[in-house]
Amino acid sequence: MASPGSGFWSFGSEDGSGDPENPGTARAWCQVAQKFTGGIGNKLCALLYGDAEKPSESGGSQPPRAPSRKAACACNQKPCSCPKTDVNYAFLHATDLLPACDGERPTLAFLQDVMDILLQYVVKSFDRSTKVIDFHYPNELLQEYNWELADQPQNLEEILMHCQTTLKYAIKTGHPRYFNQLSTGLDMVGLAADWLTSTANTNMFTYEIAPVFVLLEYVTLKKMREIIGWPGGSGDGIFSPGGAISNMYAMLIARFKMFPEVKEKGMAAVPRLIAFTSEHSHFSLKKGAAALGIGTDSVILIKCDERGKMIPSDLERRILEAKQKGFVPFLVSATAGTTVYGAFDPLLAVADICKKYKIWMHVDAAWGGGLLMSRKHKWKLSGVERANSVTWNPHKMMGVPLQCSALLVREEGLMQSCNQMHASYLFQQDKHYDLSYDTGDKALQCGRHVDVFKLWLMWRAKGTTGFEAHIDKCLELAEYLYNIIKNREGYEMVFDGKPQHTNVCFWYVPPSLRVLEDNEERMSRLSKVAPVIKARMMEYGTTMVSYQPLGDKVNFFRMVISNPAATHQDIDFLIEEIERLGQDL
């Protein structure tokens, strides 16, 4: 493998004199940073120019340094003439911060220094001349730092260094050249909302302890149901810890709807239940079946066409087979935006079959739900309004910070009946306000994180039109990539035709394999190409993109775009980087 360092400076320049589409340079960000108050701008400039994590010959960077500052004053006089004393974090511990007596001044200083570290990381995340990843193997990181927990407290200087070290080795998922997962990008309003949520530090189970957040969840879920197409936004819903849990909620509610006695009596009281989903669907359907006692063998995988869409005729055939065996079909989970191909199942045809056989229809739109915000692309989810439940993850295509996943249910009150346990110490029936806003009893969790605020605040900041522009841009970038590589030497598409989502699936074929016949030996060698290129990407730190096999297809790249910071320049860079890293294979 080539040593990291060669060819790095082709993808970014410190003075911003390169491509005009590259605003993320240290100098440009320094000019912006000067607008910050409280000395933060000067600190950011010093940090950017002093330790910008530029790719280097060694691939290393300077060890983090604990910041030093003069303490902020906590008095109420503005302007104030109080002397600013130096804060020596080496002699301070967490017990010296609030609620300690006289803890205001060290607390303000400490939190401002934490903020400096975070702002430095935010700025670097958008700078194309910094690494996406400073990769180290697990054993290297374990040996380089002492991560063990101790009985005695460390001082605040060490705590700040831990913050810096953690971010030093974190993957910059907001970097314009990070394409590895469905969740990418770093939205500033969403980030601010997440900070506020952590500061509020409350739970979502009752109105009395989360009044604004509970109301915002009500308003936001109603709006999402309206966008799905349910009249007046009627129905129910909840924000859950990810799409896998949202899908399990759908399975749980569908089972309760058909056999409410299962809540008290368990699976022994019901017949053998069967769920159906496509062979390209998310693994969470089988996980949910295992967790609920339904069993993975009771999840029937339906054949897909060459583009990864469920074949309705095979769905109906398998439903009839299950019924003939005496089993009870209770749920069909269609997918709107499959994880690998980005395929959209034919929801109208699936809805007709579910209606015919009286089966709960769930749509897993965790990845594709965001397209409902786009007038240009929402047709791909035609028929979603006929679903009984929908999973929709704003933390994917809409760029909301992790985590933010919603389950929407068409029938109001069903979630409550399915899950409520009437805990009298939380859900007293003689409270002085409308008890319908105590939403905790319809959730499986007791403690539930506030996930709604970042989505709500971003929606207020961007408007629906802002999300639409974001989504349209990402799909346009995917089409741009497809148009470049579909006829480019050294590339082969996994399936024919323009992608429906931002998923672009392809093989890179190095020069040594292009002359070989299409046989088993060629496939065996081709299967090793993507993993090696991916490893080299991570060693160099230049970009990240995912790969996987699927069915009889050997390892191929799956490019996805959900970060609105990405540009045509970044797509061009990715192609050139794949070719640079793979030409000798």
UniProtKB/TrEMBL annotation:
Transmembrane segments: none annotated. Its cofactor is pyridoxal 5'-phosphate. One of its GO terms (biological process) is gamma-aminobutyric acid biosynthetic process. It holds the Pfam family Pyridoxal_deC. Its main location: cytoplasm. It is a peripheral membrane protein; Lipid-anchor. It is found in: Cytoplasm, Cytosol; Cytoplasmic vesicle; Golgi apparatus membrane; Presynaptic cell membrane. Residues 1-25 are annotated as: Disordered. The modification N6-(pyridoxal phosphate)lysine is found at residue 396. Keywords: Cell membrane, Cell projection, Cytoplasm, Cytoplasmic vesicle, Decarboxylase, Golgi apparatus, Lipoprotein, Lyase, Membrane, Neurotransmitter biosynthesis, Palmitate, Phosphoprotein, Pyridoxal phosphate, Synapse. InterPro entries: PyrdxlP-dep_de-COase, PyrdxlP-dep_Trfase, PyrdxlP-dep_Trfase_major, Pyridoxal-P_BS. Its EC number is 4.1.1.15. GO terms for molecular function: glutamate decarboxylase activity; pyridoxal phosphate binding. GO terms for cellular component: axon; cytoplasmic vesicle; cytosol; Golgi membrane; presynaptic membrane. Belongs to the group II decarboxylase family. PANTHER family: GLUTAMATE DECARBOXYLASE 2, GLUTAMATE DECARBOXYLASE-RELATED. Catalyzes the production of GABA. Homodimer. This is Glutamate decarboxylase 2. The lineage of its organism: Eukaryota, Metazoa, Chordata, Craniata, Vertebrata.
